[in-house]
Protein: alpha-L-fucosidase
Organism: Microlunatus flavus
Amino acid sequence: MTEQTPSVPSTIPSTRVEQTDTPELWASLQRPLPDWYAGARFGIFIHWGAYSVPAWAEPSGALGLVPEDVWFAHNAYAEWYFNTIRIAGSPAQQRHQELYGGAPYDDFLDAWSAADFDPADWARLFASAGAEYVIPTTKHHDGIALWDAPGTGARNTVHRGPKRDLIADIADAVRAEGLRFGVYYSGGLDWSTSVFPPHTKFDEVSGLRPRDAAYNLYALRHVQDLVHRYSPSVLWNDIEWPDAGKRGGPDSLHALFEEYYAAVPDGVVNDRWGDTHHDFATSEYEYHLDSEDSGAWENTRGIGFSFGYNQAEDESQSLDANGIAKHLTDVVSRGGRLLLDVGPTAEGTIPGVQRRALEGLARWMGEAAPVLRSSSPAPAGLVQPSQTGWVRWLATPGHLVAAVDGGTGVDLGVGADAVDVDGLRVLNGSAELRQDGGRLTAEVTPTTDGPALLVLPTR
């Protein structure tokens, strides 16, 4: 690939505030977490791009559980196809040569049709599954924009491939269903704007990236454009932000955050902008779990091992409705929220494995969603880990709620004197309670794909 210099128009004005790069400067951006996000429990991520055409990665395992010396050459993320095919000897490179003759990656942009894309159908599916916000990728690491982004010329979906503003279509559809809309943007990596060798180690992801003023301006204009076109409730950046933008001045990241909060007062930003500012932290599969230790946080993962659609995955590598419901409950029981990803096909359909999982989740969320949204983690010390089954505890006003995966003689991990057993109400299942040495056990039978919820008044 030849090196390209970003072309950045000046049609969108910057916020003209002089700044310096100091901790006090970033501290000036701190604000209370907006009520909508503080109360949110479940969002949908969408990874859709030119990588959805080859739609292939080795389903090697979940991020954080695969050794680093294995991960990159055998990357389970289909959206990293552009990087993986450049790693000498990788199975993806070999397959790319065999199937496509080593064709340039951008050929996939032209082959991306989105012919069957029905944004209203997507939005109905997400809403029925209990999602409260939806975040599509607007530009992933391959640098291809899903809207007519400034400075991208024809390298976007308006001029090539689908030939439409996919971001506007998704935004309009999810808002019509009453959901919040956010945007993902890869500010840390853009493999089209500069020449770096492929990433083969985790420290290279943050090390081999564009840091210069030209790329900062390029990325800044993109995010400004997203803010003013779509008024997103979430700015979800990935990897990092160019270092030149952290030095203060009118085209700095600080100025961008101020501009965003002025345009979207109840908007939130994630923590992947480097050591700068964030409203909430993120973990990914089993990676960066230390982000869950304090403050507002969100776990993100795909239904399978990949975010982008991976035709090599099947049910055995994917969460079903029960798996999603349990993971969501676990995250919420620890004070977080789940951003669950779907990876549409190049034609624009939600793959069957993913659709079936969300449709099954919808049946469970019919009764579970109000509980999850009104809940907080159970008070420390009041409940203990179960010794005999899968149990997660939530607290709602005046109640403790045990999410139980089912079974006989399940230790609930709570004393009988802490709750009013006679006031038991069961959602998505049936249950009988017994006392065993002062602790409660239960026989639980879920009636949907997901744990039964045992709602118990507190004493």
Notes: Residues 352-373 form the longest helix (22 residues). Residues 1-20 have pLDDT under 50 and may be disordered. Residues 23-373 form a domain with the TIM Barrel fold (CATH 3.20.20.80).
